[in-house]
Design a protein that fits this description.
41% of the residues are buried. Strands 1-2-3-13-5-15-4 form a 7-stranded mixed β-sheet. Strands 12-6-14 form a 3-stranded antiparallel β-sheet. A 3-stranded antiparallel β-sheet has the order 8-7-11. The N and C termini lie far apart (57 Å). The chain is an alpha+beta fold. The N terminus is likely disordered. The radius of gyration is 20 Å and the shape is globular. A hairpin with a 6-residue loop joins β1 and β2. It has a single domain, classed as Double-stranded beta-helix (4-Layer Sandwich). The structure holds succinic acid.
Length: 363
């Protein structure tokens, strides 16, 4: 059993700034703590998305990068030559828009520290402090990515596990789920440990018009049951109760105005207003659609100190856990919360928007 641990010391601002999680993990192994504390309920807030201030051409990013590489036609862009720790506010605003358009953006060779990571994340919204996940000492806003293959619970969990069982959009069980997520991977096994993302705009566009009419306007219950069970198996504390929330199955992205299929397979429990067997059949069909949609997925092979920034409103992701015999994979994630998901019946799909642009001679 993993013990519940309470943070015993406080650090000065200077010490926090120099806190080095890579050093800690390499010297001490799993440093993750599960403090024996209770968090107050989250409070609703008005989300002011930095992407609304973005330059539509995102010039501040594109002109300063040394190289831009598209990983697939619509999903995933790699940016070379920029440090996230040094972005101007304009570049952050433009990054928000770029993520909304390309789903996930990767930055190579990042020197950003955990302290700076938290500061950066906060620019995009209040950082979610996870209800149950383990975190590093002194940084409750950071979710640690570390699987210790020696742990009996983890061995059991992954024995019959396929990574395709764990697609999700971060913290979709919250009333105001994650807008963006920032993930730095600083330690990699000799091989394996990739991550995959799937494009929610394309997932919607790849449904037939008849199916689109069925899913448009439906609502789905999202639950933290997955985390409840994980915490129970590990014997760790749930620091804030998980509360179910209902979100639209097709959501309108506040920056692009485009419809995205908002599925989060490990958190979506049932479609509101349908019988259980109707709901299960439709969710299974849609989950299979996303999981098998290789033409709208990207699989990223990390290099140490890469950072991925993705938009949870228009893509789902999942870590490929194939590396336990190949060494340690370590990283950390922060997730700013965004708006409450909404569906605007007058919004359009990406394909519709592109077709309209082309028809207007504005390609
Ligand atoms: C996550 O699911 O947020 C982490 C993904 C990863 O470890 O690659």
């Amino acid at each position: 059993m993993t013990p519940n641990v309470t943070e015993s010391s406080t650090l000065s601002e200077e010490e926090l700034k120099n806190f080095d999680l890579k050093k800690l993990v390499l010297e001490n192994g799993d440093y993750t703590i599960f403090p024996d504390v209770e968090y107050p309920p989250l409070v609703s807030f008005e989300h002011d998305d930095p992407g609304k201030r973005a330059d539509p051409n995102m010039t501040s990013l594109f002109e300063k990068a040394t190289k831009i590489e598209k990983l697939t036609p619509k999903l995933g862009t790699v940016i070379y030559g920029l440090q996230l720790s040094e972005l101007t506010d304009q570049q952050k605003d433009d990054l928000s828009l770029l993520c909304a358009l390309r789903g996930v953006v990767f930055f190579k060779k990042q020197n950003i520290t955990p302290y700076q990571f938290v500061q950066l994340g906060k620019y995009f919204g209040p950082l979610h402090v996870h209800n149950a996940f383990g975190h590093p000492p002194h940084f409750p806003e950071i979710s640690t990515i570390y699987y210790d293959r020696k742990s009996a619970v983890i061995q059991e969990k992954f024995r019959y596990y396929r990574s395709s069982d764990a697609w999700h959009s971060d913290i979709s069980f919250e009333e105001q789920p994650g807008s963006l997520s920032f993930l730095k991977i600083d330690t990699l096994p000799s091989v394996g440990g990739d991550t995959t993302w799937a494009d929610g705009y394309a997932a919607y566009d790849k449904l037939t018009p008849t199916m689109q009419r069925i899913v448009d306007g439906l609502e789905v219950e999202h639950t933290g049951e997955y985390h409840r069970q994980l915490a129970a198996a590990k014997g760790t504390k749930i620091r804030r109760p998980f509360i179910d929330h209902v979100h639209p199955l097709v959501r309108t992205h506040p920056l692009t105005g485009m419809k995205s299929l908002y599925l989060s397979p490990i958190f979506t429990s049932r479609i509101v207003g349908l019988s259980l067997h109707e709901s299960e059949a439709i969710l299974k069909l849609l989950n299979d659609h996303v999981i098998g949609g290789h033409d709208f997925q990207v699989r990223y092979k990390w290099e140490e100190d890469d950072v991925a920034v993705w938009d949870n409103r228009c893509c789902v992701h999942n870590a490929i856990v194939d590396y336990f015999d190949e060494g340690l994979r370590h990283g950390y994630r922060v997730t700013p919360q965004g708006e409450r998901p909404f569906y605007d019946p007058s919004s359009k799909s990406r394909r519709q928007m592109e077709q309209e642009k082309a028809a207007n001679g504005n390609n």
